[in-house]
Amino acid sequence: MVGVRRVAFVVAAVLLLFGEPWSVLVLLPDWPVAGTVVGTVVFGVAALSFPVLMVLGHGPKQSDAAARIGDVTLGTIWVLFTWSVLTHVLRLVLLVSGVDDPARPRIVAAATLAVAAVLLVSGNRIAMRVPPVKAVDVVLPKLGPGLDGLRVAVITDTHYGPLDRTRWSERLVAELNRLQPDVVCHAGDLADGSVAKRRKQVDPLGGVQAPLGRFYITGNHEYFGEAQAWLDHMASLGWDTLHNRSTLIERDGARLLFAGIDDPTGAASGLPGHGPDLAAALDGSDPEVPVVLLAHQPKQVAQAREENVDLQISGHTHGGQIWPFHLLVRLDQPTLSGLTQHGPTQLYNSRGSGFWGPPFRVFAPNEIALLTLRSA
Fold it and tell me: What stretches pass through the bilayer (predicted)?
Protein backbone atom coordinates (compact mmCIF):
# COMPACT_ATOMS: atom_id res chain seq x y z
CA MET A 1 0.00 0.00 0.00
CA VAL A 2 2.84 2.40 0.85
CA GLY A 3 4.45 1.66 -2.53
CA VAL A 4 1.20 2.37 -4.38
CA ARG A 5 0.77 5.68 -2.56
CA ARG A 6 4.34 6.66 -3.36
CA VAL A 7 3.88 5.91 -7.06
CA ALA A 8 0.58 7.80 -7.09
CA PHE A 9 2.25 10.81 -5.45
CA VAL A 10 5.10 10.82 -7.99
CA VAL A 11 2.67 10.55 -10.91
CA ALA A 12 0.53 13.38 -9.54
CA ALA A 13 3.58 15.59 -8.91
CA VAL A 14 4.96 15.02 -12.41
CA LEU A 15 1.59 15.71 -14.02
CA LEU A 16 1.26 18.95 -12.06
CA LEU A 17 4.84 20.14 -12.63
CA PHE A 18 4.77 19.50 -16.36
CA GLY A 19 1.05 19.97 -16.98
CA GLU A 20 0.78 23.57 -15.76
CA PRO A 21 3.61 24.95 -17.97
CA TRP A 22 2.33 22.87 -20.88
CA SER A 23 -1.11 24.46 -20.58
CA VAL A 24 0.33 27.99 -20.42
CA LEU A 25 3.00 27.61 -23.10
CA VAL A 26 1.34 25.16 -25.53
CA LEU A 27 -2.38 24.58 -24.99
CA LEU A 28 -3.91 27.99 -24.21
CA PRO A 29 -2.07 30.12 -26.81
CA ASP A 30 -3.85 28.21 -29.61
CA TRP A 31 -0.75 27.85 -31.77
CA PRO A 32 -0.97 26.32 -35.25
CA VAL A 33 -1.50 22.55 -35.11
CA ALA A 34 2.16 21.77 -35.84
CA GLY A 35 3.36 23.97 -32.98
CA THR A 36 0.87 22.46 -30.54
CA VAL A 37 1.87 18.92 -31.52
CA VAL A 38 5.61 19.62 -31.24
CA GLY A 39 5.20 21.37 -27.88
CA THR A 40 3.06 18.54 -26.53
CA VAL A 41 5.58 15.93 -27.63
CA VAL A 42 8.45 17.85 -25.99
CA PHE A 43 6.59 18.13 -22.68
CA GLY A 44 5.39 14.52 -22.89
CA VAL A 45 8.86 13.10 -23.51
CA ALA A 46 10.32 15.27 -20.72
CA ALA A 47 7.60 14.21 -18.25
CA LEU A 48 8.01 10.52 -19.02
CA SER A 49 11.80 10.53 -18.94
CA PHE A 50 12.19 12.74 -15.86
CA PRO A 51 11.41 10.12 -13.16
CA VAL A 52 13.57 7.57 -14.95
CA LEU A 53 16.52 9.97 -15.13
CA MET A 54 16.21 10.85 -11.43
CA VAL A 55 16.11 7.19 -10.38
CA LEU A 56 19.06 6.30 -12.59
CA GLY A 57 21.00 9.36 -11.51
CA HIS A 58 20.32 9.44 -7.78
CA GLY A 59 19.36 5.83 -7.12
CA PRO A 60 21.66 2.85 -6.51
CA LYS A 61 23.26 3.02 -9.99
CA GLN A 62 24.26 6.71 -9.61
CA SER A 63 24.67 7.42 -13.30
CA ASP A 64 26.25 10.88 -13.45
CA ALA A 65 25.07 11.44 -17.03
CA ALA A 66 21.45 10.68 -16.09
CA ALA A 67 21.75 12.82 -12.95
CA ARG A 68 23.01 15.84 -14.89
CA ILE A 69 20.11 15.72 -17.37
CA GLY A 70 17.54 14.97 -14.68
CA ASP A 71 18.79 17.76 -12.40
CA VAL A 72 18.69 20.38 -15.17
CA THR A 73 15.19 19.18 -16.07
CA LEU A 74 14.08 19.47 -12.44
CA GLY A 75 15.37 23.02 -12.06
CA THR A 76 13.94 24.11 -15.41
CA ILE A 77 10.48 22.66 -14.87
CA TRP A 78 10.30 24.05 -11.32
CA VAL A 79 10.99 27.58 -12.59
CA LEU A 80 8.58 27.16 -15.50
CA PHE A 81 5.89 25.81 -13.17
CA THR A 82 6.32 28.65 -10.67
CA TRP A 83 6.14 31.41 -13.24
CA SER A 84 3.37 29.72 -15.23
CA VAL A 85 1.25 29.93 -12.08
CA LEU A 86 2.28 33.52 -11.35
CA THR A 87 1.60 34.75 -14.89
CA HIS A 88 -2.09 33.96 -14.47
CA VAL A 89 -2.12 37.35 -12.74
CA LEU A 90 -0.82 38.87 -15.98
CA ARG A 91 -3.62 37.08 -17.81
CA LEU A 92 -6.19 38.85 -15.62
CA VAL A 93 -4.50 42.21 -16.13
CA LEU A 94 -4.60 41.75 -19.92
CA LEU A 95 -8.24 40.67 -19.75
CA VAL A 96 -9.23 43.75 -17.77
CA SER A 97 -7.20 45.90 -20.18
CA GLY A 98 -9.26 44.60 -23.08
CA VAL A 99 -6.56 42.56 -24.83
CA ASP A 100 -8.35 39.96 -26.95
CA ASP A 101 -7.57 36.33 -27.74
CA PRO A 102 -5.35 34.93 -29.18
CA ALA A 103 -2.95 37.73 -28.26
CA ARG A 104 -3.61 37.44 -24.52
CA PRO A 105 -2.44 33.83 -23.94
CA ARG A 106 0.46 34.31 -26.32
CA ILE A 107 1.69 37.35 -24.40
CA VAL A 108 1.43 35.31 -21.20
CA ALA A 109 3.38 32.44 -22.77
CA ALA A 110 6.11 34.79 -24.03
CA ALA A 111 6.39 36.48 -20.63
CA THR A 112 6.65 33.11 -18.87
CA LEU A 113 9.42 31.95 -21.18
CA ALA A 114 11.31 35.23 -20.93
CA VAL A 115 11.24 35.36 -17.11
CA ALA A 116 12.19 31.67 -16.83
CA ALA A 117 15.09 32.07 -19.25
CA VAL A 118 16.50 35.07 -17.36
CA LEU A 119 16.18 33.33 -13.99
CA LEU A 120 17.71 30.07 -15.21
CA VAL A 121 20.70 31.76 -16.85
CA SER A 122 21.39 34.04 -13.90
CA GLY A 123 20.61 31.26 -11.44
CA ASN A 124 23.18 28.99 -13.07
CA ARG A 125 25.85 31.71 -12.97
CA ILE A 126 25.21 32.25 -9.26
CA ALA A 127 25.27 28.52 -8.47
CA MET A 128 28.53 27.93 -10.34
CA ARG A 129 30.45 30.95 -9.02
CA VAL A 130 32.85 30.98 -6.10
CA PRO A 131 30.58 32.18 -3.28
CA PRO A 132 30.84 35.78 -2.12
CA VAL A 133 31.87 36.42 1.48
CA LYS A 134 29.18 37.30 4.00
CA ALA A 135 30.79 38.94 7.04
CA VAL A 136 28.95 38.75 10.36
CA ASP A 137 30.00 39.79 13.89
CA VAL A 138 28.82 37.44 16.64
CA VAL A 139 29.06 38.48 20.29
CA LEU A 140 29.72 35.62 22.73
CA PRO A 141 29.45 37.00 26.27
CA LYS A 142 31.65 34.25 27.75
CA LEU A 143 34.43 34.65 25.18
CA GLY A 144 37.72 35.74 26.74
CA PRO A 145 39.60 38.81 25.45
CA GLY A 146 42.37 36.62 24.03
CA LEU A 147 39.97 35.22 21.43
CA ASP A 148 38.19 38.49 20.70
CA GLY A 149 38.20 38.96 16.92
CA LEU A 150 38.55 35.23 16.14
CA ARG A 151 37.72 34.76 12.45
CA VAL A 152 35.70 31.65 11.62
CA ALA A 153 35.09 30.89 7.94
CA VAL A 154 32.08 28.65 7.29
CA ILE A 155 31.40 26.58 4.19
CA THR A 156 28.66 24.00 3.94
CA ASP A 157 26.53 22.07 1.46
CA THR A 158 29.24 21.84 -1.17
CA HIS A 159 27.45 18.77 -2.58
CA TYR A 160 30.27 17.64 -4.85
CA GLY A 161 28.42 15.45 -7.29
CA PRO A 162 27.63 14.58 -10.92
CA LEU A 163 29.08 17.85 -12.27
CA ASP A 164 32.86 17.82 -12.00
CA ARG A 165 33.58 20.93 -9.94
CA THR A 166 37.24 20.26 -9.20
CA ARG A 167 38.26 23.66 -10.53
CA TRP A 168 35.50 25.32 -8.49
CA SER A 169 36.81 23.49 -5.42
CA GLU A 170 40.32 24.81 -6.02
CA ARG A 171 39.01 28.37 -6.39
CA LEU A 172 36.93 27.97 -3.22
CA VAL A 173 40.05 26.98 -1.29
CA ALA A 174 41.97 29.92 -2.74
CA GLU A 175 39.22 32.29 -1.57
CA LEU A 176 39.18 30.75 1.91
CA ASN A 177 42.95 31.14 2.21
CA ARG A 178 42.75 34.72 0.98
CA LEU A 179 40.49 35.49 3.96
CA GLN A 180 43.17 34.23 6.37
CA PRO A 181 40.69 32.82 8.90
CA ASP A 182 41.75 31.40 12.26
CA VAL A 183 39.27 28.53 11.97
CA VAL A 184 37.45 26.97 9.01
CA CYS A 185 34.29 24.88 9.43
CA HIS A 186 32.45 22.64 6.97
CA ALA A 187 28.93 22.08 8.30
CA GLY A 188 28.02 18.98 6.31
CA ASP A 189 26.65 17.71 2.98
CA LEU A 190 30.15 17.50 1.62
CA ALA A 191 29.46 15.28 -1.39
CA ASP A 192 26.88 13.10 -3.09
CA GLY A 193 28.34 9.72 -3.91
CA SER A 194 31.22 7.55 -2.82
CA VAL A 195 34.71 8.64 -1.90
CA ALA A 196 36.02 6.84 -4.96
CA LYS A 197 33.75 8.88 -7.28
CA ARG A 198 34.05 12.30 -5.62
CA ARG A 199 37.48 12.48 -4.01
CA LYS A 200 38.97 14.36 -6.96
CA GLN A 201 36.58 17.24 -6.25
CA VAL A 202 36.97 17.05 -2.46
CA ASP A 203 40.75 16.69 -2.21
CA PRO A 204 41.53 20.40 -2.80
CA LEU A 205 40.02 21.01 0.65
CA GLY A 206 43.22 19.53 2.03
CA GLY A 207 44.87 22.83 1.05
CA VAL A 208 42.69 24.98 3.34
CA GLN A 209 44.85 26.91 5.81
CA ALA A 210 43.55 27.71 9.30
CA PRO A 211 46.07 27.88 12.17
CA LEU A 212 43.60 27.09 14.97
CA GLY A 213 41.60 24.33 13.34
CA ARG A 214 39.64 22.90 10.41
CA PHE A 215 36.43 21.20 11.55
CA TYR A 216 34.01 18.97 9.62
CA ILE A 217 30.72 17.25 10.46
CA THR A 218 28.39 15.00 8.50
CA GLY A 219 25.18 16.21 6.86
CA ASN A 220 22.21 14.13 5.84
CA HIS A 221 23.58 13.48 2.35
CA GLU A 222 26.64 11.68 3.69
CA TYR A 223 24.21 9.11 5.07
CA PHE A 224 22.82 8.44 1.60
CA GLY A 225 26.26 7.05 0.79
CA GLU A 226 29.43 6.50 2.82
CA ALA A 227 29.31 8.68 5.94
CA GLN A 228 32.09 6.91 7.81
CA ALA A 229 34.25 6.78 4.71
CA TRP A 230 33.84 10.54 4.27
CA LEU A 231 34.78 11.14 7.90
CA ASP A 232 37.88 9.02 7.39
CA HIS A 233 38.76 10.77 4.14
CA MET A 234 38.41 14.25 5.57
CA ALA A 235 40.59 13.18 8.50
CA SER A 236 43.20 12.02 5.99
CA LEU A 237 43.12 15.53 4.47
CA GLY A 238 43.96 16.99 7.87
CA TRP A 239 40.46 18.06 8.95
CA ASP A 240 39.32 17.53 12.55
CA THR A 241 36.16 15.41 12.19
CA LEU A 242 33.78 16.33 15.01
CA HIS A 243 31.84 13.05 15.08
CA ASN A 244 29.94 13.63 18.35
CA ARG A 245 33.06 15.05 19.92
CA SER A 246 34.77 18.36 20.63
CA THR A 247 38.12 20.12 20.41
CA LEU A 248 39.35 22.95 22.65
CA ILE A 249 41.24 25.85 21.13
CA GLU A 250 43.21 28.45 23.11
CA ARG A 251 44.80 31.82 22.44
CA ASP A 252 46.31 34.29 24.91
CA GLY A 253 44.75 32.51 27.86
CA ALA A 254 41.22 32.42 26.41
CA ARG A 255 39.53 29.13 25.52
CA LEU A 256 36.76 28.13 23.14
CA LEU A 257 35.23 24.69 22.59
CA PHE A 258 34.33 23.59 19.06
CA ALA A 259 31.89 20.67 19.21
CA GLY A 260 30.15 18.75 16.47
CA ILE A 261 27.27 16.29 16.22
CA ASP A 262 26.04 14.00 13.47
CA ASP A 263 23.03 14.71 11.32
CA PRO A 264 19.80 13.14 12.67
CA THR A 265 19.61 10.79 9.67
CA GLY A 266 22.67 9.02 11.07
CA ALA A 267 20.50 7.40 13.76
CA ALA A 268 18.69 5.30 11.12
CA SER A 269 21.74 4.67 8.95
CA GLY A 270 22.69 1.36 10.53
CA LEU A 271 26.21 2.62 11.16
CA PRO A 272 27.32 1.86 14.73
CA GLY A 273 27.76 4.97 16.85
CA HIS A 274 26.18 7.32 14.33
CA GLY A 275 23.40 9.77 15.04
CA PRO A 276 23.51 13.04 17.00
CA ASP A 277 24.80 12.71 20.57
CA LEU A 278 25.21 16.15 22.06
CA ALA A 279 25.90 14.79 25.53
CA ALA A 280 28.88 12.86 24.21
CA ALA A 281 30.12 15.87 22.24
CA LEU A 282 30.06 18.05 25.36
CA ASP A 283 31.22 15.40 27.82
CA GLY A 284 33.68 16.88 30.31
CA SER A 285 33.35 20.43 29.00
CA ASP A 286 33.87 23.37 31.33
CA PRO A 287 30.63 25.41 31.74
CA GLU A 288 32.74 28.57 31.87
CA VAL A 289 34.13 27.93 28.39
CA PRO A 290 31.90 29.10 25.49
CA VAL A 291 30.79 26.45 23.00
CA VAL A 292 30.49 26.68 19.22
CA LEU A 293 28.47 23.71 17.97
CA LEU A 294 28.46 22.44 14.39
CA ALA A 295 25.10 20.79 13.66
CA HIS A 296 24.01 20.40 10.05
CA GLN A 297 20.28 21.09 10.42
CA PRO A 298 19.05 24.34 12.01
CA LYS A 299 16.31 22.51 13.92
CA GLN A 300 18.99 20.81 15.99
CA VAL A 301 19.12 24.11 17.89
CA ALA A 302 16.28 22.73 20.03
CA GLN A 303 18.83 20.43 21.71
CA ALA A 304 21.58 23.04 21.69
CA ARG A 305 19.52 25.55 23.65
CA GLU A 306 18.81 22.94 26.32
CA GLU A 307 22.56 22.59 26.84
CA ASN A 308 23.13 26.37 26.82
CA VAL A 309 25.33 26.18 23.74
CA ASP A 310 26.57 29.67 22.90
CA LEU A 311 26.56 29.45 19.10
CA GLN A 312 25.33 26.81 16.66
CA ILE A 313 26.53 26.82 13.05
CA SER A 314 24.32 25.03 10.51
CA GLY A 315 23.54 24.72 6.81
CA HIS A 316 21.11 22.33 5.10
CA THR A 317 18.47 24.80 3.88
CA HIS A 318 20.38 26.35 0.95
CA GLY A 319 18.18 29.38 1.66
CA GLY A 320 15.58 27.54 -0.42
CA GLN A 321 17.96 27.34 -3.44
CA ILE A 322 15.25 27.93 -6.06
CA TRP A 323 12.47 30.34 -5.11
CA PRO A 324 9.80 29.70 -3.81
CA PHE A 325 10.99 26.33 -2.51
CA HIS A 326 11.92 28.16 0.71
CA LEU A 327 8.24 28.00 1.70
CA LEU A 328 8.50 24.21 1.94
CA VAL A 329 11.82 24.39 3.78
CA ARG A 330 10.29 26.64 6.43
CA LEU A 331 7.74 23.94 7.23
CA ASP A 332 10.61 21.81 8.53
CA GLN A 333 13.24 24.27 9.79
CA PRO A 334 13.13 27.23 12.21
CA THR A 335 15.10 29.54 9.93
CA LEU A 336 16.43 29.82 6.37
CA SER A 337 19.60 31.82 6.83
CA GLY A 338 21.43 34.37 8.93
CA LEU A 339 21.93 34.93 12.64
CA THR A 340 18.99 34.31 14.97
CA GLN A 341 18.50 33.95 18.72
CA HIS A 342 16.99 30.84 20.31
CA GLY A 343 16.89 31.22 24.07
CA PRO A 344 20.50 31.26 25.29
CA THR A 345 21.77 30.00 21.92
CA GLN A 346 22.61 31.99 18.83
CA LEU A 347 22.18 30.15 15.52
CA TYR A 348 24.03 31.06 12.35
CA ASN A 349 22.49 29.28 9.40
CA SER A 350 24.44 29.44 6.14
CA ARG A 351 22.72 29.40 2.75
CA GLY A 352 25.46 27.01 1.67
CA SER A 353 28.42 27.28 -0.67
CA GLY A 354 27.34 24.89 -3.42
CA PHE A 355 24.03 23.42 -4.57
CA TRP A 356 22.23 20.12 -4.66
CA GLY A 357 20.82 18.70 -7.89
CA PRO A 358 19.71 21.48 -10.25
CA PRO A 359 22.69 23.75 -10.98
CA PHE A 360 20.64 26.86 -10.26
CA ARG A 361 20.15 29.30 -7.38
CA VAL A 362 17.20 31.65 -7.76
CA PHE A 363 16.85 34.42 -5.14
CA ALA A 364 18.97 32.31 -2.75
CA PRO A 365 22.64 33.20 -3.34
CA ASN A 366 25.44 31.00 -2.08
CA GLU A 367 27.96 32.21 0.48
CA ILE A 368 31.13 31.81 2.45
CA ALA A 369 30.26 33.07 5.92
CA LEU A 370 33.04 34.86 7.79
CA LEU A 371 32.04 35.04 11.44
CA THR A 372 34.07 37.35 13.64
CA LEU A 373 33.59 36.35 17.27
CA ARG A 374 33.54 39.19 19.79
CA SER A 375 33.73 39.12 23.56
CA ALA A 376 31.18 41.11 25.53
Answer: 33-56, 77-97, 103-121
